[in-house]
Amino acid sequence: MLTPDHMKKVVDQYLAAINAGDMQSATNIYADNAAVEDPVGTEPKRGDDILQFYTAAFANGAKVELTGPVRISAKAAAFPFRAEINQPENKILIVDVIDIFEFDDAGNVVKMTAHFGPSNITVRDA
Q1: Are 46 and 31 contacting, i.e. CB atoms less than 8 angstroms apart?
Q2: Is 38 a catalytic site residue?
Q3: Is there a contact between 50 and 30 (Cβ–Cβ < 8 Å)?
Q4: pLDDT, tens digit, for every residue of 48-63?
């Protein structure tokens, strides 16, 4: 059954999996028919492309952390977080993001949208 507690736990599991470098676990939250639009405005990834996207995006490692509370409404969870993604040449890409997960009745994520733009991205030395 889909509950606010379940949706919050899925967000926590997702972030923990990314921090652990376990992209398979990070993508296990998705339903078979899920779509990932990251960032919003790009072609949604589906099926095996979702795991490939996460694997490529976090290939060099990343740290993600909530920067505010998870907001729950109906069948959705929105959450602000900061991603610090390791880049070549000792650089770290910092992205301030709001992700929105839309859930099905079984508690799986059927749609994820990542909301950020150029003004939310900075780079610093490692």
Answers
A1: no
A2: yes
A3: yes
A4: 999 999 999 999 999 9
Exposed (0-12), middle (13-18) or buried (19+): which is 31, by Cβ within 10 Å?
middle
Running DSSP on this structure, what letter comes out for residue 108?
-
Q: What does pTM read for this prediction?
A: 0.96
Among 14, 30, 54, 99, the active-site one is 14
What is the model's pLDDT at position 12? 98
- How far is it, in rounded angstroms, from Cα 49 to Cα 77? 23
Domain boundaries, the chain: 4-125
Query: How much is the CA Rg of the chain, to the nearest whole Å?
Result: 14
* CATH number of this structure's domain 4-125: 3.10.450.50
The pLDDT value recorded for residue 47 is 96
| The one catalytic residue among 30, 38, 54, 99 | 38
Dump pLDDT digits (tens) for 107-123. 999 999 999 999 999 99
